[in-house]
Give the backbone structure.
Amino acid sequence: MALSRRTFSALAGSAALGFALGGSGDPGAPSAYAARSVPTGPAPAPPSADRRRHTIGYDRHSLLVDGRRLVVWSGEMHPFRLPSPSLWRDVLQKMRAHGYNTVSVHVAWNYHSAAPGHHDFSGVRDLDLFLRTAAETGLYVILRPGPYIGAEVDAGGFPGWLTVTEGTARTADPTYLGHVDEWLTAVNRIARRHQFTDGGGTILLYQIENEYDPHVDRPTGRAYMSHLYRKVRADGIDVPLFHNDKGANGHWVPGSFDTGGDKGGWLYGFDGYPEPSQTPPDRGRFGTGGPTGGASASPRTPGFAAEFGGGRSDPWGGAAFDGKGYAEARRTRDAAYERRFHLTDLANGLTLHNVYMTVGGTSWGWLPAPAVYTSYDYGAAVDEARNVTSKIAPMHQLGHLLQRVPDFARLDRAADVTAHGLTVYHLTNPDTGAHVYVARNDGTEEVTSTVPTAAGGLEVTVPARDARLLTTGLSLGRRTLRSCTAQPMFRLTAGRQDIALFTGVRGEMARLVLDCPSEPLVNRLDPDGAWVYNQGALHVSVPLGEGGLTRVLVEHGESETPLLLLFADEATAVRLWPYDTPSGTVLVYGPALLREAVLDGSTVRLTGDTIHETGLEVWGPRGIDTVEWNGRPVATRVTAAGSLTTKALLPGVPAVTLPRLGGWRRKAENPESAPGFDDSTWQVADKRTSYSTTPVPEGGPVLFADDYGFHYGDVWYRGHLTDVAGLKSVSLGYSTGTQGLLMAWLDGEPLGVHRMPVPDDGTAGRGTWTDTAVLALSELPQKRRERLRRKLTAPGGHVLSVLVRRMQHDQDGRAQDTHKAARGLTGAAFKGATPKVRWRIQGALAPDPARGPMNNGGLYGEREGWHLPGSADDGWQPVALPHTGRGQGVAWYRSTFRLTVPGGIDASVGLVLDDDPARAYRVQIFLNGWNLGQYINDVGPQHTFVLPNGILNTRGTNTLALAVLSDGSTESGPGEVRLTLLGSAAGGVPVTQVASPGR
């Protein structure tokens, strides 16, 4: 087929920029650019939107950016799970500071598209703003716009309206592809302005599709992937493209599909989510090889772990973690877990790493897929409340190591070595001669063993299910490391000296040997270190963590450039912050976070966070003599370590006081259950055909909510009945996501409630739950039964009212259109009578322009705006919490509260709901009109809900509304409702309030 002018220009531009990725026409065939030998050398400078042209290439070892080797250390973060754009900068700065050089982001189609052809990138959905913020932070971006993303979001990211379109999703079906092309056009119009290749931004890689393992060997699958590839290229995207294989299956390696003659633009990546009990698999140089061997499936492209589990999702009921929630995910997938698996990947030659998730976030509103509840904390290194957790330590160490020690960008397998009780990987850099050893303990007991190295045997102790990284022959600037039992974290030059940091577990003895042909002058700057010079080698021993940071200064000898050796345990290492500026590298020690360092003449201006009182020590380029911290000068003195250190401690964060919630008002709703309710404006449910995968009952109308445009939240049905004499029972078929329920009234009398079961280990992944609620009149309480019988014998029509909490759409991971399974009622049958029924249906009103289509459902209070700030509630009944009552239906509770968090304090606040777990009710939580989650009291496991700053007004008044849905079988709450402080720091970022329009 002929190329359009745009397609030709895009492809020609790619070639001109020097792509060096595995060719798609010839499996793994590198371009001439990639074939050149690229020696080990400094990594590229941190990226920015510098308006300069850049090249992105590769060989089998790593990416090549402007001819320099780049190891990608990326963390996954989803802007749509943090609906406060000001806070994007906060978490991106935390990622950069902790060693990440890249952020990977899904772009959720459903979040941006409320209707076909409509794509909203404003407000909290401002993709352009996010990409600018990432560039300003100095992070590369891996952009993942789908069209299908999975990610435990509703329908896997497909918009609700796509569930009622013809055509089969994730195939070459032309109707589906037409919608996809509109979506990609909208995304790519923004993305192409932010590509690193032309200096417009920092997009480094771009993903098409996600874990697409169906149809791999079928023409429709190959045609689909080819279409996506060509479409993205035609839209002007010229950075490397990739797909993430769902496991090491060898799916979609270079050459798997037609790219229209475009060669060198495709990378193979794969995912891995190992269990903590699993032995880390070898998926690369030490693996089995072949198409299912991980990186060996594409031997001429660099090893790429496109998703590696930085935690795990948890289902309703908490079956994944025994009801303990994400705290247990973080405990079981702790720092040792991350270190053991990541070091194994590094040993296997993987140089593109993406940790999913690094920042978990919140699946607020109706965003979550059926498989998860509101919180998407994920047990990630940065928790849902934006707190950096203890599992950041290996991420921090490895990230800075891979950025600042270039030897790790090009490692080859070396001669095998063995050590009793350990699995040992041995690699070497062919350019520098440095040797790298990963010593892994897969057992349940600590192991002390001697690892044979190029510098002799090194005795190391490796805790159970942990790993250690050892190096020999590593350059430390102008001197050479012979060996060290502690792991290197970085080497850099600051001012007149080289600096190298070595880290390990608190209490371990770090034993370092430095090649010194001539005896140097050694200055032990802290009392914990010890040293001895012997036969051309300096031996240094330091107990890690005893006194915080230990400094040993090595001068003279064979080099006139001083070498400062730093030793730190994990807790200390995460308070060391290297930061590159145009004038040189700055190294800061002490605060909880360094956000930014700017050199202004002889002044270094630092911004960051403190939690506890702390000292501040700064190394930097020559000539700096003044330090500012968060805009204020601090008094310093010069140290023997060549640093400036503060004469007084930086203050910690002052106490933050939260108010007690009170002044509650209550109002019951569901007037839809009353027979006289006016539903004349509701849609008539009389369709006879549907594109749903759920069959339409023979002879019956389509009752599926999506077919009438109601894609999210609760939906009401009113069936107008005649000829009901003798009615004995009503059977209502319905289909929902996990934890859906149905409740019904007949002529205003409650018929009862039916709910889907709580998932267990075997059913936690089920995305669609179907059942039939059989509501027998004979099972009603006697008085209610008698009232209803009298009503049914009265002349005239009768009304069956049904509320369905539909929950969310299934994902479509297997490309079987499972996202099209019905939500809501699927059919109705009657026993004892054969009434004629005319159905009407009502769900959410038009999407909120600020909060988007997933904020609201179809409850009466939502349609009337009771969740919004400014809604009149002065006529509501005053109540005190806890409040209990019994009854089927919905009641609303509203309160306002005022926060007075001092300026310059970043306080993360949560809402806690707690009650007797035997009480069956659920709560939708609205803060200032934003639907921040759903609480199910008798299911859990979530009790604490994060209230993100920007939606939460930390220096003003907030409106809290709770929509409480009770099944009537027990007393219902809400019980205890309180605010809680989830974390605080002195510092933070300026926060702009997110639009929260009221009545």
Remarks:
- The domain at 859-986 is CATH 2.60.120.260 (Jelly Rolls).
- The chain has four domains: 56-404, 411-575, 667-842, 859-986.
- The mean pLDDT is 95.
- The CA atoms of residues 851 and 930 lie 7 Å apart.
